[in-house]
From TrEMBL:
InterPro entries, per the entry: Inosine/uridine_hydrolase_dom, IUN_hydrolase, Ribo_hydro-like
Name by which UniProt lists this protein: Inosine/uridine-preferring nucleoside hydrolase domain-containing protein
Organism encoding this protein: Aldrovandia affinis
Domain Inosine/uridine-preferring nucleoside hydrolase per the UniProt entry, residue ranges: 62-366
Pfam families per record: IU_nuc_hydro (PF01156)
Length: 374
């Protein structure tokens, strides 16, 4: 690939990742749907594969979580992935209280022997409306209500607030940081309100949230993370102009793994696998409930929702098909508040369009998940 006025050396190749992703979506694809904006084939070029020097580019991540069990799985996936540096983890309300989220994040880092990674406390409630929780699925504490008498103290949480930390970390590494958001988007919305230049300093934004077929898992038409703060989701999808990749609810369901894989995954002989088995048991049992069966799309199975967004951030070749489309969030509907809206007719005339994930390489996903608990 030729880039005018810039040599393809190791230093600037990493900065070219976003451009290469877009060019791959437009010119290196095997098929394109004229009406739906569907792209199939290799979605991005790995910078390291183009480098003559053979050097490996480290991916810098900032992770925003409401640490339930699938957030824990996503964090562990990132920490086990090669050539990935997690610069910090910011916490927000969602699956449980923000205090529990902070505690849970520290518990996950301890299980991975990575307590040196800073943890920051963020927003305790949404911008507007009532606070939701997902205790019925994740347990009231967010990690399956599994006892942990040796959990790290909350004194290990940084004094700096999450929003200020986000702005600082991204400014210190402008153009290098991918932000992975697996929670309600309150912290991100506040960050762009405090610093309107924040989004443009990101390398990319990876979101687990929203839906594409009006299938709700919290309300009739809304996925949990967007339902928990619709205004924040609206602000982020409107104001963040950086490359944005979204793993929606229906997509994660359709990319589920069989429970047999989950059994083998948890059966690994490691402290991390034993930790995951303890905190995941509540959710496994909840998955067989009548409500969970109604929420699921295309049958039952093991769905680690947040891990799909994380896998896309750590492995450029993980996503094999996406839809490039303008997106927004419904704020006023009696039944549809929090629902993600896809503007397939281009009626909003938005220049910025998100990449909505459609298909992924499930064999690579299995490998990333297995490595997370080794």
């Amino acid at each position: 690939m030729e880039v005018s006025g810039m040599s393809l050396n190791a230093k600037n190749l990493e900065n070219l990742h976003t451009q290469m992703f877009a060019e791959a979506c437009y010119s290196s694809l095997t098929a394109r749907s004229r009406y739906q904006g569907i792209y199939t084939g290799l979605l991005s070029c790995r910078a390291r594969s183009c480098s003559n020097s053979g050097s490996t580019m480290v991916k810098k991540l900032l992770v925003d979580v409401d640490c339930g069990v699938d957030d824990a799985q996503a964090i562990m996936l990132a920490l086990a992935a090669p050539d990935v540096e997690v610069l910090g983890i910011t916490c927000v309300h969602g699956n449980t209280t923000v205090e529990n989220v902070c505690k849970n994040t520290l518990r996950v880092l301890k299980a991975c022997q990575r307590l040196e990674i800073p943890v920051f406390r963020g927003a305790s409630k949404p911008i507007l409306g009532k606070t939701l929780s997902a205790g019925h699925f994740h347990g009231h504490d967010g990690l399956g209500d599994a006892p942990d008498p040796d959990a790290p103290s909350l004194e290990m949480v940084q004094k700096e607030g999450a929003v200020a930390a986000m702005i600082r970390i991204v400014s210190e590494h402008a153009g290098e940081v991918s932000l992975v958001a697996t929670a309600p988007l309150t912290n991100l919305a506040l960050a762009t309100r405090m610093d309107p230049t924040f989004p443009q300093k990101l390398k990319g934004l990876y979101i687990m949230g929203g839906n594409t077929d009006s299938r709700g898992n919290t309300t009739m038409c809304a996925e949990f993370n967007f339902a928990a703060d619709p205004e924040a989701a609206y602000i982020v999808l409107k104001d963040f102009q950086c490359p944005t990749y979204i793993a929606c609810w229906e997509f994660t369901c359709r990319s589920k793994l069989p429970w047999e894989f989950c059994d083998a995954w948890l059966a690994q002989d490691s402290d991390k696998a034993r930790f995951m088995k303890r905190i995941f048991q509540h959710s496994i049992e909840a998955s067989s409930s009548e409500r969970s069966q109604k929420e699921m799309v295309d049958g039952m199975g093991f769905v680690s929702c947040d891990s799909y967004a994380m896998a896309a951030a750590v492995d450029d070749s993980f996503v094999t098909e996406c839809e490039r489309v303008a997106v927004s969030v419904e704020l006023t509907g009696s039944y549809t508040r929090g629902m993600m809206v896809l503007d397939t007719l281009d009626m909003m005339k938005k220049e910025h369009k998100a990449f909505v994930m459609k298909k992924v390489d499930l064999e690579k996903f299995k490998a990333l998940m297995m490595a997370a608990l080794k």
